[in-house]
């Protein structure tokens, strides 16, 4: 079994296609499902049910008024998933700019909410098979980047687990913010 942290690292440098925009994934966070108290699947609920389904599905939820997109990695009984935290817009930059407004290009998809907004991902995309070409899909790996690792952003439980991975030195990566009650 490939663990969720390895699958998270394997997503870096891959393309994420969404609604006319393509981003190269530059930052992710792994969530270990039933073994990880920071994961939505730690306690099985209707919201987390998608995480117990087949891998390579899109788990989308709202947080702080924004959407966040996760790749369900499985295995099914473990309910693991990877949050896509940031990316570099490589196609459809004008569409991403329209969706995001006047921000620097490197900030268009920096942070989970900005990434989903730039790619047009909403709750309507929940459950999308990411191996199908539409409406949201994972594409090929366009680089094998140097990977850095550190603690996850904004979680109270299991906060020091080094399951946040990013492309070292990439300007699209978000700033680390520790949860105040971690």
Automatic annotation (TrEMBL):
GO molecular function list: alkylbase DNA N-glycosylase activity; DNA binding
GO terms of biological process kind: base-excision repair
Keyword presence, GTP-binding: no
Top-level EC class as recorded in UniProt: hydrolase
EC number of the protein: 3.2.2.-
UniProt keyword list: DNA damage, DNA repair, Hydrolase
InterPro entries assigned to the protein according to its UniProt record, in alphabetical order: Formyl_transferase-like_C_sf, MPG, MPG_sf
Protein name per its UniProtKB record: Putative 3-methyladenine DNA glycosylase
Native source species: Aeromicrobium choanae
